[in-house]
Structure formats: C-alpha cells, structure tokens
Here is the input.
Amino acid sequence: MSIEMKMLVWCVLLTIAQVVVAAIGAMGQVGLSPLAGNREGLPELVGWAGRAQRAHRNMLENLVLFAVLVLVAQIAGKTNATTALGAQIFFWARVAYVPVYVAGIPWVRTGVFAVSPSLSRPLSAIILIVLAAFILEASARLRSAPQRKYPTLLNFVRSADRRLAGRDASAAARSTDAGAGQLDLDLD
Here is the structure.
C-alpha cells in the first residue's frame, strides 16, 4: 500500500475518533436520550462540544477532497515523493488541527488550518495535472481507436439517417419514373 493510501486510511481513522469525541461532548450537553432519537429540536452545542462537532464536519468536508486526490493519483499510477509528502502533511496538519480547534485556541487554529491546504497544494497540483494528462491521453486513444464492430447509439442514428436518405432518393426516382399522381408505398 502506498504512503498516500496509508495516509488516507489514517485520515479515516482520525475522522472516526472525531465522531467519538463529538458524541461524548454532545451527550454531556443534551444527554443520551435526545441523541438516540430523531435529533429534531436539539439545542446548538456550545463550548468544546460545539467545536468538536464543527471540527468533525470540517474533517468530513476535507476528507472527501483528499480522498479523491489520493485515489486519482493511485489509479493513474502517478504517486511519487511529492504526493507522499503532501499526503503526510495533510494528515499531520489535521492531527494538529483537531485538539487546537477543540481547545478553542483561535490564532493557532487558523495557522494550523492554513498549513494543511497550503503545504498539500503540491499534492493537489500534481494530481490535477496528472488527471488532465490522463483525460487527454484517454481522449486521444478514443479518437485513434478503430471503429467498433457493435453499434453505438450514434452509429445507429447515422446508419438510419443514411438508409432514410437512400429511400427518399429511390422513392423520388420511382415516382418520376412511374408518372405523376401515383402513390409510392415503399414499406421495406
């Protein structure tokens, strides 16, 4: 397993840990019964419990983007030392972000948050470049590929168009040969 994939797995584990911390904070404020119900009308969580919930939501938002970037690099086979470093920086910045955010340290939280995306930008940039190259290569392969033997919808429409155009031309020729006023009932 590549370093990038390991960091993705560790990020998922970190997200699960954040769920537990956020749930403990919520239980402390509203109790277990309201949390076990449909959660309608729950009061807004405040203090460290609210911060834990917001940190967890922030991790979910960032995890989706990180996972897409890691998986694209992995599928394209373009992982390297830079993508590994970007993945590690992302993970460790997220590890530092959680306790700083939950503790409510405002300026440090902002600094740690800024580190995560700014230092993992090389990972994002490389993966986006690789993705663009992958799409261009696939597009070129499709254009240079021989015609398929099985009909696609577009081929079907084109051949139907040609058949209809041929019928119209042959029908017009027959009607002029047969004389005016005769009805052409070519139902092939």
In short: The chain has two domains: 3-144, 151-177.
